[in-house]
Amino acid sequence: DVKVTQSSRYLVKRTGEKVFLECVQDMDHENMFWYRQDPGLGLRLIYFSYDVKMKEKGDIPEGYSVSREKKERFSLILESASTNQTSMYLCASSLSGVESYGYTFGSGTRLTVV
Amino acid sequence: GQNIDQPTEMTATEGAIVQINCTYQTSGFNGLFWYQQHAGEAPTFLSYNVLDGLEEKGRFSSFLSRSKGYSYLLLKELQMKDSASYLCAVKDSNYQLIWGAGTKLIIKP
């Protein structure tokens, strides 16, 4: 089974801190995604990547950056955390070229910024 | 713009049948997915439809009408463990998944 592992299940950070959320997948998937999920708003795409060193902005990239130095790892960075970035963050990966293939998600990181 | 609509919340009784509807307007269509998400957990894949018609998988079935931009997820013989949110998502012309906000399903004994 594909596994997508997020480094932390729960995080509490202070306003202004730099925050790193790590995601690793073990099935050689080309595509990786970072979402945030808030009640009533569903999944909102922050950034995605189709290849190593490649990144694309999603719908809500402001206040975030990403890094993909290796195929299996996709990191989300909050340069200066703010309280409105308190949310559930979900990483996902998928295979290219297979239309029926959806996304496999990590277990999520619930981030609280105080 | 792209839009996926599904009801916010539904309630059903254990042992009964429930149908969760999803309507979509997207730039292109490369398939529709249903995911299940229990509270505090990650979404997990339930079904995929790309052609019109019904796909059955045990107690769960999913239907698609591309001409109407419409899908539903049918859950039979409901169990308490089916209490979860159900997310509808469409793969658009860029092969990205566009997500609905999810339907919270509450099962009562």
Topology:
The complex is a heterodimer of chains A (114) and B (109).
Chain A: E1 4-6, E2 10-13, E3 19-21, E4 23-25, E5 31-38, E6 42-49, E7 56-57, E8 64-70, E9 73-78, E10 87-94, E11 104-105, E12 109-113
Parallel strand pairs in A: 2-12
Antiparallel strand pairs in A: 1-4, 3-9, 5-6, 5-10, 6-7, 8-9, 10-11, 10-12
Chain B: E1 3-5, E2 9-13, E3 18-25, E4 32-37, E5 44-49, E6 53-57, E7 60-65, E8 70-75, E9 84-91, E10 97-99, E11 103-108
Parallel strand pairs in B: 2-11
Antiparallel strand pairs in B: 1-3, 3-8, 4-5, 4-9, 6-7, 7-8, 9-10, 9-11
Structural class of chain A: mainly beta
**What is the average of the pLDDT values of chain A?**
92
Q: First CA to last CA of chain A: what distance? A: 36 Å
Number of distinct helices of chain A: 0
Oligomer: heterodimer
The helix fraction of chain A, in percent, is under 10%
Instruction: Indicate the proportion of strand residues of chain A.
Output: over 45%
Taking the alpha carbons of the first and last residues of chain B, their distance comes to: 40 Å
**Largest sheet geometry of chain B:** 6 strands, mixed
Question: Concise description?
Answer:
The complex is a heterodimer of chains A (114) and B (109). Chain A has strands at residues 4-6, 10-13, 19-21, 23-25, 31-38, 42-49, 56-57, 64-70, 73-78, 87-94, 104-105, 109-113. Chain A has 114 residues and is mainly beta.
